[in-house]
Amino acid sequence: MEQTFDTILTSLLESYESNPTQNIDTLINEKCKEWNLLEEQIALLKDIITYIDTFTDKATSLENAKSEGKSRKRWMLEEIDKITEGRSEEEKAQIVSAISETNEKMIEDTTAKE
Asked: Is residue 48 within 8 Å of residue 10, measured between CB atoms?
């Protein structure tokens, strides 16, 4: 089987799914040795796994907030408060502006595709 990024990531995720209690870093290291991947490829896989874990955590957090009766907007505002805690007002404004611009771009892209 050809080792494309998709096949490597799929195989890694399937291995983890079959034994979710295993240490993900150990699994990645073992699989990367098995596949003879370069350090750059290993770093990319670890980044992808981190993004997946973060997405899962946020999705769970949102579902928990909904079950507590919080709106998506309220949850989002609380998450932004966590991200911006301890930052200057200027930094907070930049973060919120970047989020808003990204959201607008996503809406534009989605609308253009339809």
From this structure: no
